[in-house]
Amino acid sequence: MDFNIIRIARTVLHVKDLERSKKFYVDALGMIETETKDGSLYLRGLEEHIHHSLVLKQSDKVGVQALGYKVEKEADLDKLEAFFKSKGLKTKWLEKGTQHAIGRALHVHDVSGMPLEFFCEMEKAERLLQRYDLYKGARIQRIDHVNCAVPDVEKAYDFFIKELGFACSEYTATEDDRIWAAWLHRKPTVHDQAFMNGEGPRLHHFAYWLPDPLALIHCCDVLASLGYADSIERGPGRHGLSNAFFLYLRDPDGHRIELYNGDYLTSDPDFEPVRWELNDPRRQTFWGAKAPDSWFNETSPFLDIETGEEIKAEPAKLAQKKPEFII
């Protein structure tokens, strides 16, 4: 391919009550509010030097508008449009000025039906990495990855690896060696984009990097003290797959956010993907705790790039939807 996708850079979510969401993400989790404008809340982490990595848009319906990827050059956008059109996939341009603080953006549906966004330009913001006086809640640093449920993981895997230039760090396979889940990356960490077998396409979670494992513990204390204890869905714990510390939360609209720290470098071109058996008890939680049923069964709907309507989910291709263990 002759385009260069850099990393996952933002998510755009629809929420029903913007003020309620602000209390959760800003007051409890400690995200930085860049600004609120025209019914949308723009948030970023302390380390981030661009305007935002999370957009929360006031809406009557909860959903996921886009998973945004940053590309190296403006020309990459035109090359991506040509590529997606050559595959017969839906594309839509949003010219500069259409979306706040962001340049020209290409919106597409991939082979799984997920609404992806590609952009090069975004307004800058003050990087607050050493403003320790602003470290609150979970001390969120930067966006790290997204994880999506799709009905055919192998189809999604092949498209992202062979067509978009992603690499695989780890994957989960069934006894007959079918790919049940995969962790793919452009930046040199474990993942930007993960896929898991399930009804979809749907967003399972989006994730933010924290400065250290203690930030996870501190976040739990803050959430409990502010009355958000029920928002803690899973963790804290350590994943076997990725080796990272994790905490899964549900926001006031049910969107799932993972707070994450401690994975590893994947930059070497000869790095070989790590294979995990589907029911290996170390994968889900290295310490052995199982995930609740909600973690497997509840996801956020994607929205069509043209109509804004919820994209119809298809059943999973592989029969085993809930293994004994999963990350």
TrEMBL record:
GO molecular function terms attached to this record: dioxygenase activity; ferrous iron binding
Gene3D superfamilies membership: 2,3-Dihydroxybiphenyl 1,2-Dioxygenase, domain 1
Coiled coil: none
Family: Belongs to the extradiol ring-cleavage dioxygenase family.
Cofactor needs: Fe(2+)
Source organism per UniProt: Bacillus thermotolerans
Top-level taxonomic group: Bacteria
Transmembrane intervals: none
Keywords in alphabetical order: Aromatic hydrocarbons catabolism, Dioxygenase, Iron, Metal-binding, Oxidoreductase
Name of this protein: 3,4-dihydroxyphenylacetate 2,3-dioxygenase
Keyword Metal-binding: yes
Record's signal peptide: none
Pfam families: Glyoxalase
Domain VOC: 7-121, 142-262
